[in-house]
Amino acid sequence: MSADRVSADLTQLEPKSVWRFFAGMTGVPRPSKNEAKIQKHVLDLAESLGFKSKRDTAGNIVITVPASPGCESAPITVLQGHLDMVCEKNAGVEQDFDNDPIRTIIAEDDEGLKIVRADGTTLGADNGMGVSLALAAATDPEVVHGPLELLFTSDEEEGMTGAKALAPDSFEGRRLINLDSEEDDALYIGCAGGRDTNLTWRFETSAVPAGAECLRVSVSGLRGGHSGGDIHEGRASANRLVVRTLLHAADVQVASINGGSKRNAIARESSAVVCGPTGTLKALEEAAKTVAAESTAESFEKNIRIEVAKIADAECGAVVSKDDTARLLAALMAIPHGVMGMHPKIPELVQSSNNISTIKTVADGGALSVDVGMLTRSSSDSRKEVALSQIISVGKLSGAKISHANDYPGWEPNPDSALLRTCSRIYTELFKEEPKVAAIHAGLECGIIGERVGKMDTISFGPRIEGAHSPDEQVWIESVGKIWSYLKAVLAELSKG
Q: pLDDT category, 394, cuts 50, 70, 90?
C-alpha cells in the first residue's frame, strides 16, 4: 500500500468504546484461512485487559469476562462474532489483504447520513463491527452485565469451519447473542443452511484455427454483493452475463472463462477468451450491447459494461472444440442462478437460492479444466436437496465431475424463545416501536453452534451494513450508536438473572 493512503481516524467517532476496537481491527489483516494476525491481536487485547482467554486448534477464541459487581449470579451470556472478513477489491486497486491494513473513509450517503467505508475494498464491518461491539461491552465501565463469554469464531466466510469445530465444552453459556446481522431494526431468529458444489469439466484442446478471430469478452461494473443477503434483489451476475453474451455467437471456441472470486459473493467481474470464424467479433459486439441493455433493465444495475476486444492468437492459446464449447456454455446457462423459491409462510423471505460464485479455467498440457463453484442456500433441507439435484443433473448430463463441501445446517426459528421476548420488549421500550422479528436467507453460525454444543437460546442483531462482501460495503455511524445503546440495555436486563 502506498504511503499516501492514510485511513480516517475512526477513534474519535461515537461511541468511542466501539469504534476504537474497530479502528484497531482495520489495521490487522484478517482474510479467511489466514487469521493468525487477528487472533494474536485479540488474544493480546484479552491479556492486556486481564481476561482469561483460550484458542482452540481451529482458531476459535473464547474470552471469559467477569460480571459487573452484584451481577455474578446471572446466567452467562455469550456474545458471538467472527474474526475473518471477505477480501474483495475493485479492479486497479492495490491491496495485499494478507499484509495491508484496510484504508477507511468517513463519508455521507445520499441522504446526508454519516457512513464509514473503505477505499476500493471491502471494509470488514462484516463482522469486525460485531467483534468490536462485544469487546466494548466487556470493557466499558458503564455497561452493566452478568458473566460474559466472548466467542470469536474463525473462517466463517470460507465455510464456517471454526464453528463446525466447536465442542460441547468449548464454552459454558447457553444463551447467545450473535452480532453478525446487518439491519438495525430487526431481531433475527433463524437462517438458511447451505452447501458448496463444484462442477469440473476437462476438455481436450487444439490450436486456434487458421484465420479465426481471437477475442476477449469482459464483464465489469456490477455491484456484486452478498449471495445470501442481496440475492433477492436480482443483482446481475458477471458469470451469467459472459455466458449469455457468448451464446449469441455461432461456432465459437473457448480458450478460458474466469469470473468471481468468493464462494459467498455475487460475481462482479468475469471474462472469456474465445475464437471464432470471420464475423464473430461483430456478432459478439452486437451481443454485448443487447445483453448489457437487457440485464440493465432486469437488474437495475447502473454501470454494466460488456466489452469485446480483438487479441493476438498467442494470447488466445489452445481452444476447446466447437461441440465441447457448446456443451459447456449450455451447462453454464442451465445451472440455476438466483432465487429458486420464496418461503411459503414468511413473507419476503427467500427460501432457496443458488449462486454461481466462481468460474476458473486451468490449462493442463493438451487439456483445459473448467471449474465452476456455487453455493446453494435454503431454510428447508428438502428444498436444498431438490436444488442440489438440479445442479447434479446438469453436471451429469454435461459430463462434469461433481463434488460437494461445507454442508451446514440452517437455524430453526424459535418464536417462543425467552431471549427473544426479552430483546423484543427492550427494543420497544428503548425505541418506541416494535422490532422486525425475522429469519434471514444469509448463513449465520447460530445453527452450527447449536448443533455442535447443544441446545442454545439464540438471537442475532447488529448495526446497519450494506454492500457486505463487495467494495461497496459501508456501515452507518448513527446505527452503530443505536445498536450499542440497545446492546447495553439488553445486557443490563439479562444481568438481573
A: very high
Angle at 37 between CA 121 and CA 484, to 5 degrees: 65
Three-class DSSP category at 398: helix
Query: 84, 183, 466, 472: which is the annotated catalytic residue?
Result: 84
Residues 234, 238, 244, 248, CA torsion sign: positive
Active site residue 84: yes
Q: Which residue has the cell 411459503?
A: 344
Please report which confidence band the pLDDT of residue 91 belongs to, taking 50, 70 and 90 as the band edges: confident
Enumerate domains of the chain plus CATH numbers. 10-192+411-494 (3.40.630.10), 195-406 (3.30.70.360)
Rounded distance, CA 204 to CA 24, Å?
Answer: 51
Q: Catalytic: which of 35, 126, 156, 213?
A: 156
Please confirm, yes or no, whether 407 is among the known catalytic residues. Answer: no
Pinpoint the alpha helices (H) of 300-335.
313-316, 322-334
Q: CA-CA distance, 448 to 339, in Å (whole number)? A: 23
Look at residue 432 and give its three-state secondary structure.
Answer: coil
